Amino acid sequence: MSDAKPDPRTAARPDTDLPPSPVRLTATDRPGQPPVTPELTALYRGFEQELLVPLWTEIGDLMPEHPHPAARAHRWRWSRLLELAGRAGDLVPVGRGGERRAIALANPGLGGRPFATPTLWAAIQYLMPGEDAPEHRHSQHAFRFVVEGEGVWTVVERDPVPMRRGDFLPQPGMHRHAHHNAAAAPMAWLDGLDIPFQYAIDAQFFDFGRDTLSDAERTTPDRSRSQRLWGHPGLAPVSQLGPHAGTPLLCYRWADTDAALTAQLELERAGRAGTVEPGHALVRYTDPAGGGDVLPTLRAQFHRITPGTETAPYRETGSSVYQVFDGSGRITVGDRSWSVTRGDLFTVPSWQPLSVRSEASASDSDSGALDLFQFSDAPILTKLDLFRSRTESGPKDEKDPR
């Protein structure tokens, strides 16, 4: 018979039928900690059994001087993603069960979870010719961004919305939606959602919808109903005014985005204010009904950086995912640096400095510049008064986000 005593940390908690405590505390001899004594060790065993953790052992991790994100800066090559998505198109059905042929980016710092950052989901979605992705809805706010191709229509609350290169298609949560590919070729696009955020706070809901679309929904109009109502700058349809949980405009056309960026740089060349810094035009997609961000939890922006321009290092709380729409360049995030070309994606964790050098030309970019699509969790942090930003060459802790 063994005389070994059970480890109190793995023994059942006294006076309960609960499982062993997951709390583990170790007395350490270091600055800011109490002297290590048998009495302190016994105190820590008592804390463990009662599921208690003293702040003095955790404050360095819980309250650091500045954010120390677990997520890492990382780049994904579009050419490789597209190749793997094409193979999935041959092997993986798109109907119920799999639901969507969406392949998520897994940040290397987040333990293999399908999360691009702790709050953001980013995935390549791939639809074969003639395929339908069945209808469903979910509490997660979402968007689609098209880096290349056309021929797919997303049907949101029975409104067919065309998807073409450069289009940004936001979709507030709990809107029923499906997709159909009316083209003779496959099509891929970027999906962005707030899945990790809603997963972390246990707020997610999901409902299946219809398995098939009606003939009316399989039409291919040039403009959706939402665009005919809301797609006119500065003009809102009075018949549709009222509360909206996110933007009622379901597609922001590339032609409009391109024109806005071009105009900023033209103003700069004429000596007028218009860009956020020399050679760097930036627009934000906004809700035409309220003027704020397009979605309650997601901000979307588009950058155009002229050839030879290097942006000042910029950091902000929260995290972002970028996709190269056109051109080429050199991206530096913290101590990581990569070359990027069309379609490539990269993450910027919280408070990591980002700088971009444009190496674009007329040979690899329609605009002749480096064009970048960005989405972030900034609306969440802004609502909680937790958004902070800093341009290394400018004032610190700016309250007005870039």
From TrEMBL:
The keyword Oxidoreductase applies. InterPro entries: Cupin_2, GDO-like, RmlC-like_jellyroll, RmlC_Cupin_sf. Transmembrane segments: none annotated. Residues 1-16 have a biased composition (Basic and acidic residues). Residues 1-37 are annotated as: Disordered. Keywords: Dioxygenase, Oxidoreductase. Residues 125-191 form the Cupin type-2 domain. Gene3D superfamilies: Jelly Rolls. This is Cupin domain-containing protein. It comes from Streptomyces catenulae.
